[in-house]
Design goal:
Number of helices: 14
Radius of gyration: 32 Å
Order of helices and strands: HHHEEHHHHEHEHEEHEHEEEHHHEE
Helix content: 25-40%
Strand content: 5-15%
Largest sheet: 8 strands, mixed
Shape: elongated
Number of strands: 12
């Protein structure tokens, strides 16, 4: 039986062709175990591959494969003219005693945690977000309606056809083909006036609002938000250091006259004109024109948050306010979170034409949407699958809305008075 230098027998090496592992893997595993357990001590020299192959009745290639793996892991070392041997220090071992584990001083940590004012506001923002969706969450579409098979086929196809293109980072503003088909879709279905260069792909509506705040406003600027309204959007604006004023909304939508009285120096307004969040009314045409006139007169900006316009159950979606804007002051926001899945994290904003380049450059620092996901959504829109999916969702949610309203009336014993609006993922219930 072959021995290592020093007299240790290698009799434990008995590879078998009937075993589940290859011969080289068996030899590698047995040698590695013997070395790490100390049965073959540091400094011991192993037999040559030729001698060991003859002794075990295997090819030299089999021995070389085992030795190469041990050399790669640092369990063996080799020197020209000397052969393979066990090194003095094995992987995971140290020649010196480990120092005592360092533990931070609690008092020191308190002094070192020096968040900026914006940092503290940003951390506080997380209290408005929940990692887990719950029943009756108006931001969560039904997973049973998501076209899983179509999504998988689209993924396979684009990787086969455009795999090389998907391995690069997207251009400023987002993946070009998605911006093109999205611009066409918004012009055709929502009445927007825009081109692909105005589309900026973001992670979601909140990232869009944050990008707008950082690019267009300074700390301390006044902002209008609807009351009641979109709490998370408001907290993003507050995190940016803006003076946020809650402006009441009536049956016609956000009250412009109330906003001018409460915050006359406001530079931006956040509104949901197609369907107020959360009361559900639609901003009237006269109120839209009044708000657009305010923006033109004050050189202010309007964020049009079109969060669920695709889900209108009677008649086509209402035209967006952006299509009425002659002063290039409206920034339109949308997302695929409700129409596809929130976990995709794909949203978009439509910048005014004079601001498109600036938004694209600013967006370059915060690109977070993977190009393959953008390509898949682009293909679904271009091939018509997206609108087919929307029609299916509208039918399903129209039925679900009616069922929920019926259950509230029948089982609520007169306590609940539902007021369905025939659109969106939520409706008002009065007690």
């Amino acid at each position: 039986m072959v021995k290592v230098a020093g007299g240790v027998s290698l009799g434990f090496l008995i590879p078998s062709r009937e075993a589940g592992l290859s011969m080289s893997r068996q030899i590698y595993s047995d040698l590695r175990t013997a070395i790490l357990e100390g049965r073959i001590v540091a400094g011991s020299r192993l037999p040559s591959t030729r001698v060991l192959a003859q002794e075990l009745g295997v090819s030299r290639t089999t021995i070389r494969l085992a030795f190469d793996q041990l050399l790669d892991e640092g369990v063996l070392a080799a020197r020209v003219g000397y052969g393979s041997y066990v090194p003095e220090v094995l992987p995971g071992q140290q020649t010196k005693a480990r120092p005592k584990a360092w533990r931070p001083n609690a008092a020191g940590l308190e002094k070192r945690e020096r968040l900026s004012r914006r940092g503290r506001r940003t951390v506080a923002l997380q209290s408005f977000r929940s990692d887990a969706y719950k029943a009756f969450d108006p931001g969560l579409p039904g997973g049973d309606l998501f076209p899983k098979s179509l999504w998988a086929k689209t993924s396979t196809r684009i990787w086969k056809k455009r795999g090389a293109d998907l391995m690069t980072i997207s251009a400023p503003g987002g993946y070009g083909p998605l911006r093109e088909v999205l611009a066409d879709y918004l012009v055709r279905t929502r009445g927007l006036n825009c081109g692909p260069e105005q589309i900026i792909i973001t992670a979601d509506v909140l990232q869009s609002i944050d990008l707008i705040a950082r690019l267009l406003l300074d700390e301390g600027d006044q902002v209008w938000v609807e009351e009641p309204g979109f709490c998370s959007g408001r907290s993003v604006l507050e995190a940016a250091g803006l003076k946020v004023e809650a402006v009441p909304a009536d049956d016609a939508g956000l009250s412009v006259s109330a906003g001018e009285w409460l915050a006359p120096e406001a530079r931006l307004v956040h509104t949901c004109p197609s369907r107020h969040y959360t009361l559900g009314m639609t901003m009237t045409l006269s109120r839209r024109l009044e708000l657009l006139e305010w923006a033109k007169r004050t050189q202010g900006w309007i964020i049009e948050n079109d969060y669920d316009s695709e889900f209108r159950y009677q008649g086509p979606p209402l035209p967006a306010m952006q299509g009425l804007d002659t002063g290039n002051s409206v920034i339109y926001l949308g997302s695929f979170g409700k129409t596809l899945l929130p976990s995709l994290n794909i949203g978009y904003l439509v910048a005014p034409p004079q601001m498109a380049e600036a938004f694209a450059k600013a967006h370059f620092l915060t690109r977070v949407v993977p190009v393959p996901l953008q390509a898949m959504v682009a293909d679904m829109i271009a091939e018509g699958h997206y609108e087919v999916h929307l029609r299916r969702m509208r039918r399903a949610y129209r039925a679900r809305e009616a069922l929920l309203a019926e259950c509230l009336i029948d089982e609520g014993r007169g306590i609940f008075q539902p007021e369905p609006t025939n659109s969106g993922f939520h409706f008002l219930v009065r007690l």
